[in-house]
Amino acid sequence: MNIGQVAKSSGIPVKTIRYYEEIGFIRPDRDANGYRNFDDRDLHKLAFIGRARSLGFTIEECRALLALYEDQSRASADVKRLAMDHLKDIDAKIAALKSMRDTLSDLVTSCAGDDRPDCPILNDLAGR
Amino acid sequence: MNIGQVAKSSGIPVKTIRYYEEIGFIRPDRDANGYRNFDDRDLHKLAFIGRARSLGFTIEECRALLALYEDQSRASADVKRLAMDHLKDIDAKIAALKSMRDTLSDLVTSCAGDDRPDCPILNDLAGR
DNA sequence: CCTTGACCTTCCAGTAACTGGAGGCCCTAT
DNA sequence: ATAGGGCCTCCAGTTACTGGAAGGTCAAGG
Questions:
Q1: A1, A67, A127, B51: which could form a disulfide with A38 (CB 3.0–4.6 Å)?
Q2: Chain-centre distance for alpha carbon B38
């Protein structure tokens, strides 16, 4: 299967697939003309990575997850720990964003948003 | 005022302050020995930027905000629009993270996390 | 006077995860 | 033969810093 087809069917951009090869996630065969030729295993891995990335796992976490996935003797506890750590990261990010959102939302509300120059948002940023 | 002092009093790392100079936010004077010498205006700007950054505005947004701040004839509507756009970005990020969090949280809950290899998290990632 | 340590300087490289573009080969259809 | 689309590699750029090397400066202590 050519890279274009894989991109279309997996939803992962061509460039990204090449990048994933470059960082060692996949090692597709090459045809005589140098074109990459993906097999089911490659497709499967790409789908795995795509799904993990969509859940916010970093590339390195994906690498770890993939290794666990391919290790038949893994303990699910190891996977769970990884996922829980990531969950904690996500929660921290959400909390940080919410705090920004609350402050910013207050500021936006307090700003008239008309053609006069006086602006509580700028005043806040300026520490006044 | 030396860069170290500015860093301490503003909470912005020395490296970051130099970077902010490099990208044109500030233009501190230099002493005879080449050391940067920050005045109140620089301090004020740095505080402004630091606050805006802590609210998640990008560097380019900070630049725009700073320009509005220094433009006495600005309309508060322009500031408000910028802030509202940013608020929308934040909300989108929060929504995306929440969706990740929910999915991931379900997966974590469904995983026994013991020494057996069977793992719903990996199964999900593998599309099963 | 010399050394030591804490400052400060510049410049270069690296981070995360792609993304865009240039230059060029390959394949198929007209 | 040529036009188009798909494929290839390699290089550079993105965001906002951050780390480190190599070296100048300054104040205090011996």
A1: A1
A2: 23
